[in-house]
Amino acid sequence: MNHSRTHSPTKAQAMLEFALALPVLLLLLFGIIEFGRLVQAWLAVQNSARFGVRYAITGELDPGYCELAASTLGYEEADTFGTSPAAYDCKVQRAYCQSLPEDEQEDCDASQLTSELEDWARLPSIRESARAGVAGASVIDDYSVSGDYLTYLISHDLLHLGNPALNSYYHVTICSNRDGDGNGVSDFGRDVSTEPETCVDMAASPDVYMDDAGGPGDRVRVTVTYMHPMILPLINNIWPQVPLVAWREGIVEKFRVSRISGVGGVIPDVPTPTPLPTNTATATPVPTDTPTPIPTDTPTPTDTPTPTNTATPTATPTPSCDDLQTDSPLYFSDDDIRIPLTNLSGVWPITINQISTLWDELEGQTGGPWHDEVDPLPVAQYFDLYTWRGSTILNVSPNVY
């Protein structure tokens, strides 16, 4: 007896269809995962820029960077003066300048030295804050990838910025429109021709690569660059990484002065060199001789006198002491007592010959709150000089009254 067996094509057909559909399904699945990773990295970079600029506008800093700032700027003795053991806090006391030889005291400004130390220490502090905001992205902080930011600030060498062609590269650029010399032109500018974008100190000669966080009222920009690695098969062989760049700008708060006038403008770009023009020979036409007409006598008109307007003298305002006004009440800044004054006359210069301060008497009574409420008297604080526009106008013996 013969038995015939028939095979159903259903199973073979299903396996063939599954084999054809599997690559498409895997590609779709990996694509969803890759897109999700890309969105997450983009949000992390945006968040990093926000963290950085929010910290930058406050003027805050990590005191842990003060020692490196003093070492880089050569202010170790100034920063640690009066402390035992030596402590770095990015603060220079006025007593340090007074301890110098007389020929060096005039060029020593404790407030300026403090500002320079704080501005340097703010840079790695801002980067550290921005780095905390990029959580979720696979950042590699190894020197061979993301560079050594502290060494870059010291050497100003782009070689210390790492290799932006590698996966998980991360860098923070800080730039401002600070106008240190007051000439109306920003001292710093963005150089977008480098990778990553850098900040250039155009006031230096020659220009140097240096980040800057600006001062009160300046505009500061924090730019974050990140190279997101791709993991999708086949695609990552052709497109191994996606460059992600985010930036935020803000106005630095008034952490050193009592009042800010105006808001800083945009942060300029570093000018790119313009190629020299090439000389092109141009054909010069040969003029054709033209007959010259015979001149005809023409009567000369007689000038008619024009009345001359007589200028009316402008009344000069009478000088008044009311033209000297204070912009804000007296306030304390470190170990200085400041009184902002403004000349509103627009015509007459004002010279300060004497300023009298009365601390221990109120109207109608003797004794004042400063002396009455402080017991004992602050022996470490006293009046020793008056300054106007940064220059000393009066030296007095130490006097707490």
Quick structural summary:
The protein has 401 residues and is α+β, with helices and mostly antiparallel strands. Helix content is 28%, strand content 17%.
- How many β-strands, per DSSP? 14
Low-confidence stretches are 258-262, 360-375
**Overall body shape:** elongated
N-to-C SSE string, H for helix and E for strand: HHHHHHHHEEEEEHEEEEEEEHEE
Widest sheet: strand order? 1-5-6
How does this model look, in words?
By secondary structure, this protein is α+β, with helices and mostly antiparallel strands. The protein contains ten helices and 14 strands. The protein has helices spanning 10-56, 66-73, 76-80, 94-98, 102-105, 110-132, 143-146, 149-155, 235-238, 369-373; strands at residues 170-176, 188-191, 198-201, 208-209, 219-229, 241-251, 324-326, 331-333, 336-338, 341-343, 361-362, 365-366, 383-388, 391-399. The strands form six sheets. A three-stranded antiparallel beta sheet has the order 1-5-6, with helices on one face. The termini are far apart.
